[in-house]
């Protein structure tokens, strides 16, 4: 069996990009499997926990 690898890349002034197959369990119990998911790091996404690009509109800076 091949070992699956998941990586997390923190993008400058942007989201955390998860690469690899990811099983997500939402707070309401709904489940889905996704790959290459971007999680919001700025706190302003209208589609939390996922990034919707708002970080660029608000000029999010991580430092
Ligand atoms: S990091 Fe992209 S909307 Fe928050």
TrEMBL record:
Gene3D superfamilies: CDGSH iron-sulfur domain, mitoNEET-type. Pfam families: zf-CDGSH (PF09360). This is CDGSH-type Zn-finger protein. Keywords: 2Fe-2S, Iron, Iron-sulfur, Metal-binding. Residues 13-61 form the Iron-binding zinc finger CDGSH type domain. It comes from the Bacteria. SMART domains: ZnF_CDGSH. One of its GO terms (molecular function) is 2 iron, 2 sulfur cluster binding. One of its GO terms (cellular component) is cytoplasm. The keyword Metal-binding applies. InterPro entries: FeS-contain_CDGSH-typ, MitoNEET_CISD.
């Amino acid at each position: 069996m091949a070992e699956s690898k998941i990586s997390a890349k923190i993008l400058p002034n942007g989201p955390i990009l998860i690469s690899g197959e990811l099983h997500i369990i939402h707070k309401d119990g709904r489940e889905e499997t996704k790959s290459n998911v971007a999680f919001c790091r700025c706190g302003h996404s209208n589609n939390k926990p996922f990034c919707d690009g708002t970080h660029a509109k608000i000029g999010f800076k991580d430092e």
